[in-house]
Amino acid sequence: MGSKKIIFFLVFLFVVQGVRAQGKTTIKASVDKTKILIGEPIQLTVEVTLPPGAATRFVTIDSIAHFEFAGQPQVDTAKTNSGTAIKGVFTITSFDSGHWVIPAFVLSPSVRSDTIPVDVVFSDFDPGQDYHDIKDILEVNPSKKKTPWWWYAAGGALLLALLLFYLLRKKKPRTAAAPEPLVSPFEEAMKQLEQLEKERPVAKQYHSKLTDIFRLYIFRKKGILSLQKTTDDLVVQLRDLELDKEQFEKLSQSLRLSDFVKFAKYAPASEDNRTCFNEISNAIITIEKSAPGSPSFGGS
Q: Is 249 helix (H, G, I), strand (E, B) or coil?
């Protein structure tokens, strides 16, 4: 009778531990190489497991000391029996030789990954290899070809046509075009956000237009060259704006989530669309209120 109680207790303990493990948020980080040559790319993989019903979230990686990002991150989201699994693959490299440590990635005070040591070294030099002297520069005598006479004739005819066109155009009176009224960056952004809410395109186009509105606003308002930058580079520049820490983090997450949607790496729910819209809209309003007199680019 006593042995049956012990067996029942062990089975019960195993089940409880299994349920607790399924409901736990975890994060794991790894690299495919721990020793690389200077400039050699490596793959940094970050895996986050979320329990059922938990809000979708992922780490924000702005920069890593002694390392540089070498491309856009590849992020995949999958639903599993134990919740949601998010896997991000980042290509990084380093041009600083030495023993470096990739720090832990933190989701919360109790959920963090392990640190990862990486050695960055120069390529080995073998003094026993044969010495190869630098070869002399070889002179190449270009072949001399006579230009056909009709090339000169065609060039003269083209110059004559351009001269006639210039003279005729100069004689025509020009009517001054009425100047278009300039719209401030803030008014333009608010108008485009309102139009986006009315149109409600599919998720990929919705998030693409949403981030374009924000990028154009900060380019015109702050002169930040944001239109051709990656989201990670843009987030680094946004640190200088008049946003508190919480609003900056929410804005960064919204921009990255929109990237995931644009590159078909994540299918957003309706509340995700609303959250991204509100965070980007609120950030524009905060920037406008905090610096009403700052110079605009392309508007008043």
A: helix
